[in-house]
Amino acid sequence: MNLLHTLPITLAIGTAVLSAQTGGPPWTTPTPAEIDAIYPDIEALYIDLHRNPELAFQETRTATRLAARVKALGFDVATGIGRTGIVAVMRNGTGPAVMLRTELDALPVEEKTGLPFASTVLIKNANGQSTPVMHACGHDLHMSAWAGTARLMAEHRDRWRGTLVLVGQPAEEGGGGAAAMLNDGLFTRFPRPDFALSLHDDDTMPAGTIGYHPGYFRAMSDAVTITVYGRGGHAAMPYNTVDPIVLAARIVLALQTVVSRENNPVDPVVVTIGSIHGGTQGNIIPDEVRLQLSVRTYTPEVRARTFAAIRRIANGEAAAAGAPRAPQIDAPSSSNAPVYNDPPLTLRLAGALKKALGEQNVVEMPQKMTSEDFAEYGLAGVPSALLHVGAVAPAKLTAARDTGIPVPAPHSPEWAPEREPTIKGAIRAEVTALLELFRGN
Ligand SMILES: [Zn+2]
Ligand SMILES: [Zn+2]
What we know:
Helices cover about 40% and strands about 25% of the residues. By secondary structure, it is an alpha+beta fold. A hairpin with a 3-residue loop joins strand 1 and strand 2. Helix 2 packs across helix 4 (about 140-155).
């Protein structure tokens, strides 16, 4: 408890009395007017966050801004959880504990949206190299919606009961931020949530439309590196060499058969070779070539089988080429978990959202092979749901369907969510979902 906490509690008692006097219907969703009233403040926050992105585990300015906001609203706020994360708790009477998570981090991407508030930030990354930074995944939008939801829930705390746990998680982008917060006692030092929610922006749905998917939703993701060895020499005398470029090229093509010929098509797998490096100039045959792969799967069995196929193919091609030594294959021993949206929770939320937002504005989404460390909270035993909010102007989606050229997606330097309807839709969905869970069964 701090001084700031006591003031809004007093205010809450005042509004509770008022509410009891008026005795209106239960609050199930915020009205457009309630969201419009806070929007200018939230949009200003969005623009500020967008202009000032920070990389994984460096989100100190971002965390400070958000912490100050929720503190002023009457939350108990802890900072530095899992290095740069924040936890804001509002205990508001008897009821379930519900966690709402936003990510804090941005990506090493040079922004090309042309927006007047585009990021021009250059930051030193963990290796000390200077890199442009952009909120290219929309985490600035998630933080803004989270802050708007916090404000509505705090200002109307006389209309719900329970414990709201707001989490600002660092380093979602491959940095292990969720695990860092859990290791730092997120579920032991703070109220353990009965449910965990998060909302991500999406490039396939109209702005403000909410997407849900019960069950497995996001894949496991593994980075695999293969270094193939040859015997270098003069480009004019390839007969004196073992050419690792040709060997690497054969491996790249042979690996395409892992998915097309070895895997049961009902088990989703992606094997992408995203990087291939070898050699210095055209008249030299190099000694080695390095391949970097991204492997996406949903189950440990399929993952193990895919890894075994990659090893067998790389070793077999090297042997066939007469390579002086077997390739070096570096694969992680364990993977991140797939995101599993608890089906009863997800369907319950979908029902409440459809009722509040209209059937046509809440749609079931397909699975994807991207990954998300939100999976960690479900893995820790808390029923979880990762929802999505469409962030594209409907006319742009129609044009994309007509031309066959997709709109820029998250992680693109041109990703620019349709600001106002997306933020408002996200706040509306988050508050509606929280109120559904706080209402109890
Ligand atoms: Zn991302
Ligand atoms: Zn993201």
